[in-house]
TrEMBL record:
This is Enoyl-CoA hydratase. It comes from marine sediment metagenome. Pfam families: ECH_1. Belongs to the enoyl-CoA hydratase/isomerase family.
Amino acid sequence: LACDIRIAGESARFTTAFVRIGFSGDFGGTWMLQRLVGPAKARELYFTGDLIDAREAERIGLVNRVVPDDQLAGETRALAERMAKGPPIALARMKQNMNLGLVSDYSALLDAEAEGMIMTSMTEDSREAIKAFLEKRPPTFHGR
């Protein structure tokens, strides 16, 4: 649940089976699941312990996408490599902003975004991206 992007193989199954063994849940799952699928669906999954398949998990937003089982490792590696080629400073700031958006008000988020835009616009990576765009080539980011 705590991953930024979740990819499941088509045979994956998911459950919050705590209710089946008389437990209330742990590791922040109740907090996280509500944010992923909404309070009503999270309550249903926790209170019933129902098993859902990968397609249902995708439909409700528990996973981002479902791929054939034999392509799971390749798909996740390809996505990780694609993201690793991105601008690390900007990506880190995006993640901070998204996390802040879960716990703060809109005004505070706008301030953080403005601060982040100023900060990231002054990086070497930003200059490289603009130069690469003008030269019609992919940028090469270095995290500076």
